[in-house]
Design brief:
- With 429 residues, this protein is an alpha+beta fold.
- The protein has four domains: 131 residues, no CATH class; 78 residues, SH3 type barrels (Roll); 70 residues, Roll (SH3 type barrels); 126 residues, endopeptidase domain like (from Nostoc punctiforme) (endopeptidase fold (from Nostoc punctiforme), Alpha-Beta Complex), CATH 3.90.1720.
- The protein has eight helices and 29 strands.
- Strands 24-29-25-26-27-28 form a six-stranded antiparallel sheet.
């Protein structure tokens, strides 16, 4: 177990029983015993845990435990501000501490947004004079190369800066990010905040094309295409037989340069000696033009189902969010992204992002269906309703993307999903 960097009040614990999120183990005695004990051991200290605020997510436990916060007034205020402006550390950075000096309080550290810094200073000022030493992105340690573009077909994003650490999500070729920790030229790993879903994690330096603000804006302000097939062959010219060594995947976005017959001419991001900073070609049948930014397409639920079934039997991967391998929420996020919708990364985030659906009887095709063990209030598994009392989802228990039924008479029925059904949410209007 370990304490997550820059997270003063959330303990993050590795849990090898990944399948808890997917609802495979109905009676996990190890976890039940752990939770009933309501204690966390850190070093040689035992700390109480507020179990009611604990949830499983990607094989870890997040616990917001106010009993662990320091009791002095400045830290109480800081904890309150953090809960207000950075309550989900998966999608932000809030690394702030307060030092009490003879001349007053000193607030120092790093945050992503100016509004976070302003809130800290405003609240701490109630105690007296406060010196503001809080840095707001972009940070000095990264230099001018504070932005990045993924230059691998699938970029791995981990919870720590080492290969053995847990995979928490993935980025696809051309996805953009902010560099919020580490040095682009000196460190092997850098901490990033992905632009699409704001997810924060560690990435290998070679997997990123580092750019300055001007280059970043130039990349973003170009018309793009989005790939709509599970796997797409990149071509060296407008000739289907002139194949490059590169294959890309569904929902990848590339900058559009022009058109040549049945092909789009696109520009690849830099930073990779094998295929960077030159133009290549994509068959029009495998992509569509989206403009500069990804915006929702005019679709119906059945359009989502068509894409969803293209990925049937895609293997399950904890932290995966690509068409090749994915987990439950990575899969549903991908289905919406390829249709123009940016939705949050994890199941519980998707639950609270979507519009609640009153009951299973009110489900429409394309709605997200959420599940939670032990009558929890936050989703630990998610799928997408496809009609006829069925939903499609990526399940570790089934080995990947599969279809399950709510109907006891159906051969695809699994009672676990009735017993642990939580709610549903609607994204489409």
């Amino acid at each position: 177990m370990f304490k997550k960097k820059s997270d003063n009040n959330n303990i993050v614990i590795n849990n090898k029983q990944d399948d808890l999120k997917k609802g495979v183990f109905k009676n996990n005695k190890v976890i039940n015993s752990f939770l009933s004990a309501s204690l966390i051991l850190i070093g040689s200290s035992i700390l109480p845990v507020n179990v009611s605020n604990t949830h499983f997510d990607k094989g870890i436990i997040f616990t917001d435990n106010n009993a662990m916060a320091a009791e002095n007034p400045a830290d109480k205020i800081l904890n309150s501000v953090k809960n207000k402006v950075a309550n989900d550390t998966r999608i932000t950075l809030f690394d702030v501490k307060v030092i009490n000096t003879k001349s007053g309080l000193v607030a120092q550290g790093k945050v992503l947004e100016e509004s976070q810094r302003q809130e800290v200073i405003k609240e701490l000022s109630k105690l007296g004079k406060v010196k503001n030493n809080i840095e707001v992105f972009p940070f000095a340690e990264t230099g001018e190369l504070s932005y990045g573009v993924a230059n691998l077909p699938v970029m791995q994003i981990r919870d720590k800066g080492k290969h053995s650490s847990q995979l928490i999500t993935q980025g696809l070729f051309g996805m953009t990010m902010r560099i919020i920790g580490g040095h682009p030229k000196k460190d092997d790993w850098v901490l990033v905040s992905m632009n699409d879903d704001k997810y924060v994690g560690w990435v290998r330096r070679p997997d990123i094309w580092f750019v300055n603000k001007k280059e970043f804006d130039s990349w973003n302000n170009q018309e793009k295409i989005i790939l709509t097939d599970p796997t797409v062959q990149v071509l060296n010219s407008a000739n289907k037989n002139d194949k490059s060594e590169l294959k890309l995947y569904m929902s990848t976005r590339l900058n559009l340069v022009g058109e040549s017959g049945d092909y789009y001419e696109v520009k690849l991001p830099g930073g990779n000696k094998h295929y960077s900073n030159h133009n290549t070609y994509i068959a029009k049948s495998s992509a569509r033009v989206i403009g500069k930014n990804l915006t929702p397409f005019n679709i119906k639920g059945q359009d989502l189902v068509v894409k969803a079934k293209m990925l049937l039997s895609a293997p399950y991967l904890w932290g995966g969010s690509s068409p090749m391998m994915n987990d439950c929420s990575g899969y549903t996020q991908l289905l919406y992204k390829v249709n123009g919708y940016i939705i949050p990364r994890d199941a519980d985030q998707q639950q609270f992002f979507s519009k609640p659906v009153a009951s299973r009887n009110d489900l429409k095709v394309g709605d997200l269906v959420f599940f939670a063990e032990n009558k929890g209030k936050s989703a630990t598994h998610v799928g997408m309703y496809i009609g006829d009392k069925k939903f499609i989802h990526s399940s570790v228990g089934y080995g990947g993307v599969t279809i399950t039924s709510f109907d006891p008479k159906d051969s695809l029925f699994n009672s676990w999903y009735i017993d642990n059904y939580l709610t549903a949410g609607r994204i489409l209007k």
